[in-house]
Amino acid sequence: MPGEWVPIAMFAATAVAISFFFYFRARTRAQVQQTIRVALEKGESLSPEILQQLTASLDTQGSDLRRGVISVAVAFGFAAFALILGEHDALRPLLAVGTFPLMLGLAYLGLWRFRD
């Protein structure tokens, strides 16, 4: 019975982490929009420099590179863990699990490289 909770806890922790990521990203965007809205309601003019500073946190080009490097590092971490563990039965499953973040990381690196 206790062994059954391990995969459930792993997937639940992953879902919670992803939910926090999307929540805080949406909150950041909402705060930027609220700041712009308040400034416009007060009649202040927003120069391009100010808008650029406000939207700097929403920049995806730098985050694509960062996400790509982190995902590839996680994939190599799974591969290293599989090799260090030394169990033949665990090698293929851990390498298979590491394939997902590797492909995700390569996709992010491709988006970063080929962005206009």
How many beta strands in the DSSP annotation? 0
- Which range best describes the helical content: under 10%, 10-25%, 25-40%, 40-55%, 55-70% or over 70%? over 70%
Q: If helices are DSSP runs of H or I spanning 4 or more residues, what is the number of helices?
A: 4
Number of domains: 2
Write down the overall mean pLDDT.
85
Residue share in β-strands: under 5%
Unreliably modeled segments: none
Globally, the shape reads elongated
Radius of gyration: 21 Å
- Largest sheet: number of strands, sense, barrel closure: none
Cα separation of the termini: 53 Å
Q: Class by helix and strand content?
A: mainly alpha
H and E string: HHHH
Report on this model:
- With 116 residues, the protein is mostly helical.
- The protein folds into two domains: 58 residues; 57 residues.
- It has four helices and no strands.
- It is elongated and about 65 Å long.
- The mean pLDDT is 85.
List keywords for this structure.
mainly alpha; 2 domains
Give the structure's gist in a few sentences:
The chain is mostly helical.
